[in-house]
Amino acid sequence: MFYLLQVVIEHGVRKLDRPFSYAYLGQNKIQFGERVKVNFNNRQLIGFVVEEPLLVEDSLEKYQEEKGYKIKPIEEIIDAEPIVDQKMFDLVLKVAEYYCCPLIEVLKVILPPSLRPNSQYAGKPKRSFRKVIVINDKFLSTTIQFNANETKLLNKIKECPQGLPKSQVTAKKSLESLMKKGAVSAEQIEIMRLPEIEYEEDSIHELNSEQQAAYEYLINSKKRVNLLQGVTGSGKTEIYIKLVKNCLDQSCDAIILVPEIALTDRMISRFKAIFGDRVALLHSGLTDAQKYDEYLNISREEVHVVIGARSAVFAPLKNVKLIIVDEEHVSSYKQDRMPYYDARKVAIMRMEQMQGKVVFGSATPSLECRARGDKGVYGLVKLKERYNSAHLPQTKIIDLGDFENIDYNSTLISIPLRQAIERTLAKKEQVIIFLNRRGYAPVYMCRKCQKPLKCPNCNLPLTYHKGQKKIVCHHCGYELQAEDLVCPHCQGTAFSFVGFGTERIQEEIQSFFPQAKIRRLDADTARRKGVYHSIINGFSKGEFDILVGTQMVAKGHDFPNVTLAVALLADQSLQFPSYKANEDTFNLLTQLVGRAGRKDKEGFAIIQTYSPENDIIHLAQSQDYEAFYQYEMKNRFDRQYPPYTFIVNITISANSSKEVEKASYKVKAYLFHQLQGGTRSELYGPSIPYIERLNNRYYRKIMLKYKSRKLVDAALKGLNVLNLHSSSVKIDVDIDPSSDI
User: Fold this and answer.
1) Mean pLDDT of 149-163
2) Do domains 209-388 and 390-439+502-639 have the same CATH topology?
3) Domain ranges of the chain
4) How far is the CA of 560 from the CAs of 97, 202, 539, 603, in angstroms?
5) E-assigned strands of 366-426?
6) Which residue from 136, 599, 92 is spatially nearest to 389, judged by alpha carbons?
7) Helix (H, G, I), strand (E, B) or coil at 327
8) Around Cβ 469, how many Cβ atoms within 10 Å?
9) Residue 159: which residues within 8 A CB-CB, separation 6 or more?
10) How far is CA 316 from each of CA 90, 209, 702, rounded to the nearest angstrom?
């Protein structure tokens, strides 16, 4: 007699994306949802049991003889109980099916590193315990006498409700005596390594009439998905708080998603101030120990509200009835690597499963979301006024191609911009300056041969970082010391730099305003622990005057004293060869402009551009989302892009250019054959993507447009078993990509 197990193994390889049969011959209980160690192809791997074990009455030998094949026994049960329940596993199956990705890869996403079904789990943090000394209350009611030292130690223990850590006890003899008398005992208590969150207690703010109407609409809506479209500063967060309170009042759980880790500080502080310990934080920026303990805290039902970035949509809450997706339009909700899931889509899947509601919130909703709102697929409610009737900032476009606006002092910090910063600082108000490019300069060039230095792995220009004295590839991490560098082309030793990054902008602004206090916020400064939080808090409290940064500074923040918001190169993102370039540019500029004048002060914004007549720039200047929506929907219809079609990006990569070219045409031939006669799908490519070589792998891309998933589903799934006769070739399928480049 033995148990027959169905196990998926840890390798996220398409050809291994199926359960394998193993036997369990032991006496311990084994269940669906547990991890096991197995021998696979003579290697010890971690597997995950995906079905309830089947009890087989025959011996393993007899069963193998009847079936005609061997079944290996598992080597070890790792978990004492399931780490994934049936509801979450059903969601995992649905996500893996929709995004055509290996099941094991989705399981790795939803679990903290300590619980993941892979071999690295063993080195990750486990539950942490500490030995403490506690008082035996029953014994203290007796008449036994204690000497002065014993009494002193007893009083010290009484001051620690959770027990006095044994490591802090210095009076060893007194402790030994108290333990012999039975007055105290040693216990093991679990230590929760939760993230420290600063907040001050607060109450729920009263909604104005427009907010109250929107709240009531969302509460009473019969739609599964609802869009809350509100101009920047209209108070969407206060509506979120009321929605969560209503959810908690009904003994239900809620999840609030924000698009980036950088924005969780503001949201978690606000919700902690209202709901206290009922709120947990989940995102990839936590330490492995914090992720593990927060996960345990949530799964034990000790918290009922989870705030986090993309992966928090999988938080193990038992009774989720509300998922709020703030800044719904931001593309970072879509994961850019396997598994290519979109947290917005997963939120809908989860609420369909739980019979709950999804609320999307944005000042500039994605076209797909707004179109569904217009058609009545989603509920739609709008906030047209800023909270407390504050005015939207006046916005000025500055033409960088007009020589009257620039001089020899700077080609990017224009004369009108300097004047605006000077006026703002004179009023003791603050400035945000946005440039979506980190480092000092994006190109480092040999003066002798005029050739830029490129990454040997990616063939892309290396970015100069002056503070670190390095040139760095922002794609693979390759770096060189800028000092004593020799040009690989001509052996030259003199170099110059071209272009601007946030580091250079900070330096130039400081030279114009030497008395101003300036800080920079980008991926370089924020990677150090605690720095992001320190900069945001410091700027909010007025500790410095000017904040220079990338997208991190452009959205989601509420700085009461910021009255000037600046986009230095507004047309930079318009140059991307993506169907979403217009939308991304409009959204980013609108969000940036919305940072200025959010309280009772008049705001002003400056948009610098080399394309002052561009329609998108003008629509962002006027903050006219409705006009932009009509404009861009026509473009999408003419070119048949979402929301009028669905698209899939199929990326083929290999170790050589010749190999990837050959494989990509085989993939196209396969797809063409599978889709023959389909009038509602189109194939494009293979083409060379925006980045052709990355980390010494070469890439080609095929794009598939379709009207109905049913038409292409079988063809996409067939890619899993397509034989390309090379172990070097890899195929990635990205359903509903955030870009077509």
Assistant:
1) 87
2) yes
3) 2-123, 128-191, 209-388, 390-439+502-639, 442-498, 646-735
4) 46, 18, 10, 11
5) 379-383, 394-399
6) 599
7) coil
8) 10
9) none
10) 13, 36, 36
Q: What is the pLDDT of residue 137?
A: 75
CA distance 286 to 281: 9
Fold of 128-191: Arc Repressor Mutant, subunit A (1.10.10)
CA–CA gap between residue 581 and residue 541 (Å, rounded)? 35
**What whole-number distance in Å separates Cα of residue 160 and Cα of residue 140?**
16
Say which amino acid occupies 8.
V
pLDDT value at 167 more than 70: yes
The upper half-sphere exposure of residue 268, i.e. CA atoms within 13 Å in the direction of its Cβ, equals: 22
Cα gap 107→314, rounded to integer Å: 10
CA nearest to 549, candidates 428, 435, 679, 717:
435
Architecture of domain 2-123: 3-Layer(aba) Sandwich (3.40)
The CATH code that applies to domain 646-735 is 3.30.70.600
Q: In this structure, what token pair is assigned to residue 285?
A: 């920026």
- CB-side neighbour CA atoms (13 Å) of 438: 20
Question: What is the Cα–Cα distance from 648 to 712, expressed in whole angstroms?
Answer: 10
Please, is 388 exposed, middle or buried when counting C-beta atoms within 10 Å of its C-beta (0-12, 13-18, 19+)? exposed
Three-state secondary structure call for residue 130: strand
| Structure tokens given for 125 | 């943090």
pLDDT at 471: 96
Q: What φ, ψ does residue 465 adopt, rounded to 5°?
A: -115, 100
Cβ atoms within 10 Å, residue 601: 17
Close Cβ partners of 570 (under 8 Å, ≥ 6 residues apart): 585, 589, 607, 608, 609, 617, 620
Tokens of 399: 């033409």
Give the residue carrying structure tokens 């160690």: 37
This prediction has a pTM of 0.91
Q: Domain 390-439+502-639 has what CATH class?
A: alpha beta
Structure tokens at 555: 């959205």
The CATH class of the 209-388 domain is: alpha beta
Q: What is the pLDDT of residues 548-558, one digit of tens each?
A: 999 888 877 77
